[in-house]
Fold:
Amino acid sequence: MSDLRDQGAPRPSTTELAFDIFHRIIAIFCLIAGLRYWSLLIGVAEQGAWRFDLLPVHWKIAAASLAVLWPVAGIGLWMIVSWGPVVWLVAALTEIAMHGLFPELYGNDWLIIGTHVAVAILYGVFRIVLYFSKRSDEQVE
Structure:
């Protein structure tokens, strides 16, 4: 019985801990993005110029969707559940499509596009490193 208590739960590696922190940092930014969209839609920001009833139809669809997607993605990333990155990806691809494919409707915002691409690349690097570290751990055992 003492052997079981001495072993304890397996401790996460440094990479796993960094990946969890990465999830939480991105979650905070997702929640901020969601709050930004909500503040625009209800007329708190920009002196009410972006209120929902004043927006053109294409912005109504995009802003209302992102006002829901960003907080949901933030919650999923904060809880480190499997659907969190998926919802983040949907929201990020939506904004990339808005500003990259339809700049005449939504404007060019290369900072948003670049940020989403950088986060996606960093997420991919984390996943690859975690995959190979787990694979090497399995081969050692």
